[in-house]
Design a protein that fits this description.
alpha/beta, 385 residues, 5-stranded parallel sheet, 3 domains, DNA_Rep/Repair_Clamp_Loader, Zinc Finger, Delta Prime, domain 3, Rossmann fold
């Protein structure tokens, strides 16, 4: 990953380069931003630049011995930690081929979901296990081999086991010589507070619509796209280049989820307990992470339906395939029920994470959503006898 591979964020790139060239380099930095904003990519490009033998004014050279090893993610002074699923003898090094494949194919613009699919996590929740502290001890026992700086890169530090987090805290407080810790987080609020208070933040802002459009043009992702189509795509991406890629490629899971969402909401027009049970069982058959994404998608749809009647298109992020249903139930999601609807979504997600029986969760969830929306459906004449 080079700075030139990163979409937009020229201000942040320049700041990191200036810090490196001036020698003002914090020993522990947290790159935090939304999925697809470029936090992971920036951290990896920065690590490469710091150790490049002939860094230029805007990027690493790409030709020196260090850059060539970073190309293969095989530098002896680069250690990477990331969540994985446990096994009797497994460690992060066992998943390194998967990690290299993802970075090669996606260039750090991959999601947590894609990583879970790559390592076949299923219903298991990937974490960074406590045994990785032994891995760090082993690596840090050696002197820096050949780099200017030894880099410890941690993807999703919020997923660290408490034992490992405390180990990292000690490293942050007493950093080994010529060692820099770079972390990329999607959810910094769940990183150990004592670590957060001792590191430097690099806040990665959402990409602007113009940056997303330029990224799409540079990569030739839409061969016959007009300016209007590009603008719509950039707007729907909501600052995430990863989301823009999904919109271009067609996010199959999102489409399948919306089919279920349509069943739930159109079912309110003529409630049928048997159909509710069938839908709840269909959702229960999904993996836990897929269930969470479905409920989150429904919550997002409620938010868009609330805004739709105001006609403020710049605030609305409905996809074309969602517009039909949104217009059909226009006005049903309103200021009287939006709070309870979002609370039900939050409650369902909390129950999923607590491993409550999935069939019970979703049958109850559909009943509660039906109860919250029924008065509005009746007043709009959407309820059928």
């Amino acid at each position: 990953m080079y700075f030139r591979d990163i979409i937009g964020l020229e201000d942040l790139k320049q700041r990191l380069i200036d810090n490196a060239r001036s020698g003002h380099i914090a020993h522990a930095q947290l790159f935090c931003g939304n999925e697809g904003s470029g936090a992971s990519a920036l951290a990896l490009a920065y690590a490469r630049y710091l150790n490049c033998h002939n860094p230029g004014e805007t990027d690493a050279c790409g030709r020196c011995a260090s850059c060539l090893k970073y190309d293969r993610l095989a530098h002896p002074d680069l250690f990477m930690l990331y969540p994985y699923i446990n096994g009797t003898k497994l460690s992060s090094e066992d998943f390194l081929p998967h990690w290299r494949d993802m970075l090669t194919d996606k260039g750090a613009y991959f999601s947590r979901t894609e990583w879970q699919e790559e390592i076949k996590a299923g219903n298991s929740q990937p974490i960074i296990y406590s045994k990785e502290s032994r891995f760090l001890d082993e690596k840090l026992a050696y002197k820096v081999s050949e780099a200017k700086y030894r880099i410890i890169y941690i993807w999703q530090p919020e997923k660290m086991h408490e034992t490992l987090a405390n180990k990292l805290l000690k490293l942050v407080e007493e950093p080994p010589e010529r060692t820099i810790i770079l972390m990329a987080s999607f959810d910094p609020n769940h990183v150990l507070g004592t670590i957060l208070s001792r590191i430097q933040y690099v806040n990665v802002r959402p990409l602007s619509d113009e940056e997303i459009k330029e990224g799409i043009r540079q990569r030739g992702l839409l061969s016959s796209s007009g300016e209007e189509q590009l603008q719509t795509l950039a707007h729907l991406a909501q600052g995430s280049f990863k989301h823009a890629l999904e919109l271009i490629e067609g996010n199959e899971e999102a489409r399948e989820n919306f089919v279920i969402i349509e069943k739930i909401l159109t079912g309110i027009m003529k409630p049928d307990p048997k159909e509710m049970r069938s839908i709840s069982e269909e959702i229960a058959a999904l993996g836990r992470e897929s269930q969470i994404r479905l409920v989150s998608q429904l919550g997002s749809f409620f938010r868009e339906c609330l805004i739709l009647p105001f006609g403020q298109w710049q605030l609305n992020y409905l996809r074309l395939d969602q517009m039909g249903l949104a217009r059909e139930i226009k006005g049903a999601v309103n200021e009287k029920n939006i709070v309870s609807l979002m609370a039900e979504c939050d409650l369902a997600i909390r129950h999923i994470k607590q491993n409550v029986n999935a069939k019970m969760i979703f049958f109850d969830f559909i009943l509660r959503i039906t109860s919250a929306l029924t008065p509005a459906f009746k007043s709009l004449g959407l309820r059928r006898p």
